[in-house]
């Protein structure tokens, strides 16, 4: 057996408003929680439903002493609807003014752009110039490698790479030389480790700049 589905929020709000309209009196929350189920609104939902009505100015909430009373009259709904209407009317007027301003801008931009033989010819010439510009731009890209600035950047990069290669060569040989000087009895084993284990032979040496381009 399927569970009975609860009422939608808007229908709950309408049911609770009926309670107020029928008596037009003041109610404590606990009184509303007792009356709500008679209209189909479960007790647990009454507080949230009433608060939503208060937030929308459809129910007034007044504290008298230590008690909080709720009240709603048909005039409250009328006032709320009137406020909504006034806001919408204001939005419509603002949108109309905005539309009129955009129309004026559109008309102003159209001046001097009326269709004519001169305008068509000018647009045609503009397209030809743009096509020529794009062709020249593509052609320049083909010669980018011969650009002096690009060539200088390549030379600078080679210089940096050359210095880095020699620096790492020093990093390799300096520890080997230090170990050979301080542990001569292990020099032969060290040479064997460099050549056979790591693959570094006496052929490894500093690079001359002339070998990498100048």
Any key phrases for this structure?
nucleus, 6% strand, coiled coil, LZ3wCH, meiosis, Mnd1, mainly alpha, 214 residues, three-stranded antiparallel β-sheet, flat
Structure description:
Required for proper homologous chromosome pairing and efficient cross-over and intragenic recombination during meiosis. Residues 16-73 form the Mnd1 HTH domain. With 214 residues, the protein is mainly alpha-helical. The protein is 68% helix and 6% strand. It has helices at 9-23, 29-35, 43-55, 74-110, 117-142, 148-182, 187-198, and strands spanning 27-28, 60-64, 67-71. Strands 1-3-2 form a 3-stranded antiparallel sheet. β2 (60-64) and β3 (67-71) form a beta hairpin. α1 crosses α3 (43-55) and α2 crosses α3. The longest helix is centred in the middle third of the chain and has 37 residues, at 74-110. It is flat and about 110 Å long. The relative contact order is 0.05.
């Amino acid at each position: 057996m399927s569970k009975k589905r609860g009422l939608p929020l808007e229908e709950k709000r309408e049911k609770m408003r009926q309670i107020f309209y029928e008596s037009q009196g003041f109610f404590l929350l606990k009184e509303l929680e007792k009356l709500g189920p008679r209209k189909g609104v479960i007790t647990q939902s009454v507080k949230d439903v009433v608060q939503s009505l208060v937030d929308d100015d459809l129910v007034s909430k007044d504290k008298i002493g230590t008690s909080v009373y709720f009240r709603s009259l048909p005039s409250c709904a009328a006032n709320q609807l009137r406020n909504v209407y006034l806001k919408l009317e204001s939005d419509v007027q603002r949108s109309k003014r905005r539309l009129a301003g955009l129309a004026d801008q559109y008309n102003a931009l159209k001046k001097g752009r009326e269709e004519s033989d001169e305008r068509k010819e000018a647009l045609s010439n503009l397209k030809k110039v743009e096509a020529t510009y794009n062709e020249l731009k593509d052609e320049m890209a083909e010669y980018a490698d011969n650009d002096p600035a690009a060539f200088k950047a390549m030379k600078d990069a080679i210089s940096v790479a050359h210095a880095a290669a020699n620096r790492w060569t020093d990093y390799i040989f300096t520890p080997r030389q230090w170990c050979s000087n301080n542990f001569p009895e292990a020099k032969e084993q060290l040479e064997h480790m460099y050549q056979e284990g790591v693959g570094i032979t006496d052929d490894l040496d500093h690079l001359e700049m002339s070998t990498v381009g100048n």
